[in-house]
């Protein structure tokens, strides 16, 4: 579920993300004007209520998962933790853009959430689910 | 591919069919290591009152959630655990007849739902103690044993797990460490012969746990005994390809 945010909150979030992304070297000065294409984190609220899972998930009712969208433009900032493979794919894309797509914008840092739920025997389970929330986006 | 220009990338807009959606949901659940598709739980009249285990687990959840946000300290076992499970007491046996000593109470749990590959980091047995006036203002020793082997002609073999000392007038949740027993149960589910609880007065006399104020299965739901296991995952859940 992508919930529309209030304008002020969204602006604050964008500013915060720009700081985070700049720290990670995602924004490249040469492509700064192409803001729409830049790899960045977007709001995504996963609602267990909307999924119909509240029959068995006790808490939380949902959580902010975020997602990554955009393009990874090269050359990357020197702090960018890019793999050799990503670099090669970017190079091939420049040569044959119709054959090989641009390197994807993916989560580079994820964090866990805790979920409380019933099992089949009505025992209650608290489980830490790893890699559920996007903390930062980038190209690997 | 490779022939003609590549169309601009867009997110797939196609709506999933019912079966596709079901398959996808099942796959997501498998990735999360959660049990099958949601199933509506029966809600008998008795379940309207909150039960002790879910209440305790909800407190744990809030402790974790607040700890995540504030970076504050968590309960010691929580920090080392990926999974915490509560188990409702399935069977309770009493040996509290006046002419038979010592008195004891036995508890059994169904541990078959623990996912494979989990390692026990700690386990607790929690039992509620109400203030007791019989005997008045006395020191009581509550000890917990694992039943290791049962015999038809003599007393069962027991393994000592924990001892707590308290006053007869105390009112609180009593927490007994049963990590050693749960470790063995996890290795061999068939060897789960239960936990046995004894109460002794300071002068060594056996006492009926009920008279000491320890509540069993007959207590209100919010005060029934239960067990909590803290586990650490030894590997990630395996995802079955569709």
Per-chain topology:
The complex is a heterodimer of chains A (140) and B (242).
Chain A: H1 7-24, E1 40-42, E2 45-47, E3 57-59, E4 62-64, E5 67-69, H2 84-95, E6 106-118, E7 124-138
Antiparallel strand pairs in A: 1-5, 2-4, 3-6, 6-7
Chain B: H1 18-32, H2 52-70, H3 76-79, E1 83-95, E2 104-109, E3 118-129, E4 139-149, E5 157-167, E6 172-177, H4 179-187, E7 195-201, E8 206-207, E9 226-233
Written account of the structure:
The complex is a heterodimer of chains A (140) and B (242). Chain A is α+β, with helices and mostly antiparallel strands. Chain A has 2 helices and 7 strands; from the N terminus they run H-E-E-E-E-E-H-E-E. The longest helix of chain A is centred in the first third of the chain and has 18 residues, at 7-24. In chain A, 25% of the residues are buried. The model of chain A is unreliable at 4-35 (pLDDT under 50). By secondary structure, chain B is an alpha+beta fold. In chain B, 19% of the residues lie in helices and 31% in strands. Chain B has helices at residues 18-32, 52-70, 76-79, 179-187, and strands spanning 83-95, 104-109, 118-129, 139-149, 157-167, 172-177, 195-201, 206-207, 226-233. In chain B, strands 1, 2, 3, 4, 5, 6, 7, 8 and 9 form a 9-stranded antiparallel sheet that branches. The mean pLDDT of chain B is 79. Classes of the chains: A alpha+beta (140), B alpha+beta (242). The interface between A and B is medium-sized, with 32 and 35 residues.
């Amino acid at each position: 579920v992508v919930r529309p945010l209030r304008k002020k909150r969204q602006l604050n979030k964008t500013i915060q993300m720009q700081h985070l992304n700049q720290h990670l070297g995602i924004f490249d000065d040469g492509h700064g004007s192409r803001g729409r294409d830049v790899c960045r984190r977007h709001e995504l609220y996963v609602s267990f209520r909307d999924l119909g899972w509240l029959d068995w998930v006790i808490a939380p009712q949902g959580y902010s998962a975020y997602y990554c969208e955009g393009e990874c433009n090269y050359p990357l900032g020197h702090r960018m933790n890019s793999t050799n493979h990503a670099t090669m794919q970017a190079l091939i894309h420049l040569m044959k853009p119709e054959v090989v797509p641009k390197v994807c914008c993916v989560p580079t840092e994820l964090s866990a959430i805790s979920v409380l739920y019933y099992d089949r025997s009505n025992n209650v389970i608290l489980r830490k689910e790893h890699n559920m929330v996007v903390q930062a986006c980038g190209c690997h | 591919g490779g022939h003609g220009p590549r169309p601009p990338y867009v997110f797939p807009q196609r709506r999933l069919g019912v079966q596709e959606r079901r398959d996808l949901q099942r796959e997501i659940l498998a990735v999360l290591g959660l049990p099958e598709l949601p199933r509506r739980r029966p809600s008998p009249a008795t379940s309207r009152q909150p039960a002790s285990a879910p209440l305790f687990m909800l407190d744990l959840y809030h402790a974790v959630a607040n700890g995540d946000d504030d970076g504050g300290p968590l309960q010691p076992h929580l920090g080392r655990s990926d999974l915490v499970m509560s188990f409702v007491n399935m069977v309770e046996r009493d040996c509290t007849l006046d002419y038979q000593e010592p008195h004891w109470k036995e508890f059994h749990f169904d541990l078959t739902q623990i996912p494979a590959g989990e390692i026990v980091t700690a386990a607790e047995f929690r039992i509620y103690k109400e203030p007791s006036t019989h005997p008045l203002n006395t020191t009581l020793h509550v000890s917990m044993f694992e039943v290791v082997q049962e015999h038809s002609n003599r007393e069962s073999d027991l393994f000592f797990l924990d001892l707590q000392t308290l006053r007869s007038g105390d009112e609180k949740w009593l927490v007994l460490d049963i990590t050693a027993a749960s470790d063995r149960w996890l290795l061999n589910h068939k060897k789960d012969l239960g936990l046995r609880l004894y109460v002794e007065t300071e002068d060594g006399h056996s006492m009926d746990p009920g008279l000491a104020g320890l509540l069993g299965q007959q207590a209100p739901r919010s005060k029934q005994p239960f067990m909590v296991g803290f586990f650490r995952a030894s590997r990630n859940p395996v995802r079955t390809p569709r």
